Amino acid sequence: MRSVFAAGLALAFCLDIACANTEKVIFVGPETVNVPTMPPTLEDLRLDVLTPDDWTKRLDLKASFPTGDTPSGTTTWLLLDRLTHGQRYELRVCWAATQPTAFTLDVFELPTVWDTPELISSLATYAFSRQPEKDSPDVGDTTSQRKKHEHETSLLFLRVLAAADYFTDNTTLMAQVEPVSVDLILDPFLLNALPRSLLPTVGYVVVVAILAWFLSRRILVWIQPVVAAEGKSAEKKKRL
After folding, report:
1. Which residues 6+ apart lie within 8 Å of 202 measured at CB?
2. Could you give the number of structural domains in the chain?
3. Cα 214 to the chain's mean position, in Å?
4. Lower CB density within 10 Å: C or N end of the chain?
5. Residue 28's domain spans which residues?
6. Which helix (H) or strand (E) holds 183?
7. Looking at residue 141, what is its pLDDT?
8. Where does the secretion signal sit in this chain (predicted)?
9. How far apart are CA 113 and CA 45, in angstroms?
């Protein structure tokens, strides 16, 4: 009995307590496209990349109050690469509740971005802001990291819009919005039904259910004699 209780208590302590907000978008991996190696390439954009193997990143995203020109806030672009065609995915953005922000997430296929002036202009503006200075020692890194041959891959562009969602008497915070620290998580679905990150939770629930079943049987064995004794005592009192 004690061992069962101790095991259940240990499992309970394994749960993480989180105080955060979450925004997500669910999508299906697109068909593969041919990625050329002639510049400008995807590497030249210098976007942060998420893949099923490198599936989480912590970033400080710029945010701003909505305006007429940017009603949804500041735009950040990322690349979701090495996806599987037809595979279901969930992309989550998690951030602290102490940084009130409204996030809007959209995914676009490569041809859609290329053929839409508004999207390609936004992407070009963001990519230009990430280019290093000419005298930076990192300028040559992109060339050395390029793939030598064209390759087929399933990829999507992720657009994150971050709008500050608060009001304060602090004039500094109202004049200049601080970057929002976020966790970006690319979560593939197992059998296109269950997010991979939920597998430990499902395992935890199954283990707790099994332990509860065995524990209930032990408790029932102990309770039955007590109930039977109380029943006999009640019958004796009635006879008297």
Report:
1. 194
2. 1
3. 36
4. C
5. 20-192
6. strand 180-190
7. 45
8. 1-20
9. 13
